[in-house]
Amino acid sequence: MIVHSVIFSLRHPAGSQAEADFLEAALVLATIPGVEDFERLRQVSPKNDYSYGFSMKFADAAAYQGYNDHPDHVAFVRDRWVPEVEKFLEIDYEAL
Amino acid sequence: MIVHSVIFSLRHPAGSQAEADFLEAALVLATIPGVEDFERLRQVSPKNDYSYGFSMKFADAAAYQGYNDHPDHVAFVRDRWVPEVEKFLEIDYEAL
Predict the structure, then answer these.
(1) Given CB atoms, is B60 within the 8 Å cutoff of chain A?
(2) For A53, nearest residue in chain B (alpha carbons)
(3) ipTM entry
(4) How many CA atoms are closer than 13 Å to the CA of A21, on its beta-carbon side?
(5) The overall pTM is greater than 0.90
């Protein structure tokens, strides 16, 4: 099991409609085969300056690769992520 | 519910006994009242250079504060975390 997450901030003002639109559009990622337990999260620690996170699980590396290559993921990254995300950090965890 | 995690790297060489000792010692955190679903994780994404993560859940801010203030947490941070951790980033998530 791989827990894939990305912590990020948007270029949009907090509370804006553009921000809400982005977070709504991201739900398409939850529909991609292989994605389990998709979550949209608010980052609340004052010890970093990211605002949001997405988290999901994959059964194995093949499922993860299938997600990365899926047209809906590719389109989301191209059309929404790249233009609207200010900065991000990807994290992949496996059990120790 | 708050998901508190920290992604980090150790000063110890990968695969060393000192590394194993640190990860073993961290299990004390799981015994602190209020800590739920404590996990020790290996960070495997090549897109960042952290090596490990700890993750835990708290029912609310009071439980989180109780953990922060608990003598076992304070001692772990002082005696193990500060001297042995090279770098880290704390992340706190709440449901969007």
Answers:
(1) no
(2) B93
(3) 0.94
(4) 11
(5) yes
